[in-house]
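Case 269 in the screening queue. Each case pairs one protein sequence with one candidate compound; here the compound is adenosine-5'-triphosphate. For every case the pipeline is the same: read the inputs, emit a complex structure as tokens, and attach any notable structural observations.

Predict complex for case 269.
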Amino acid sequence: MTTADPAGPDLLLEARSLRKEFVTSRGLRKSTLVAVDDVSVGVPAASTLAVVGESGSGKSTLARMCGLLLEPTAGEVVFDGQAVTPEAVQLLRREIQFVFQDPFSSLNPRHTVEQIVTAPLRYQGTRIRKDLRTFAQDLLDRVGINPDHVDRLPSQFSGGQAQRIGIARALACRPRLIICDEAVSALDVSVQAEVLQLLVDLQADYGLGYLFITHDLAVVRLIATHVAVMQSGRLVESGSADQILDAPRERYTQELLKAVPAYPDDWNI
Ligand SMILES: Nc1ncnc2c1ncn2[C@@H]1O[C@H](COP(=O)(O)OP(=O)(O)OP(=O)(O)O)[C@@H](O)[C@H]1O
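Case 269 output:
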């Protein structure tokens, strides 16, 4: 096993030796499953760390700990150089937002787009200068959705458009880190490319860091600056995207890369 990227002052988020155990019970028998085992990774500011690995390797559990949705059994999360304490979690919630895999199940089907993208302001108690409608329309415009559609329901949009709305909601509180958990996996390939391009543009404009969870190495090539590879809850290796994708040291990573289909030529992100 290799160690994670060296810690440095430019790391926006750092996972230090994170471990997560789940206690499961079948009948009277209890057993402990170690979903994440001593994993250390870092997301440099304005960069994208992709965490890859097959199903069940612990990617989502790691993401949920990094996003402060799940308490680690051991280890710590450091945000902007400060170890996250239980008291700090609430304050940091607005700094770290999520975009999930299935846009439709993560958007309330009975809420209008205006309600959806402004909801985080209410949860976080964030004040804005504009009225909510203008705020929502500006956000929609930023993610490539017609601002005139602000009163529509999620069911009136395509999957790619719904994911853009999910991204708009994630942007509402001006976070510094967005955790994308299989955020483009449910979309058609051509739509994936468009949504990835949007994420790249937003990163350039706002200096966002992304923790990008995916099983799809073709997507990793397009978006990642850094890559961490997981297997059975453990970190196999991590480093710059060029190093991991072009010169992986570990056999497991080499095998994963062999299985990657070529991505279409017109994906010029
Ligand atoms: N709440 C939970 N209770 C018990 N076990 C869990 C829980 N959440 C995850 N696990 C287990 O932890 C392991 C890692 O799961 P996790 O979802 O983090 O992996 P993953 O790499 O994200 O997989 P996938 O790509 O399929 O989502 C799996 O064995 C899973 O069954």
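Case 269 observations:
- The CA atoms of residues 102 and 186 lie 6 Å apart.
- The two ends are 32 Å apart (CA to CA).
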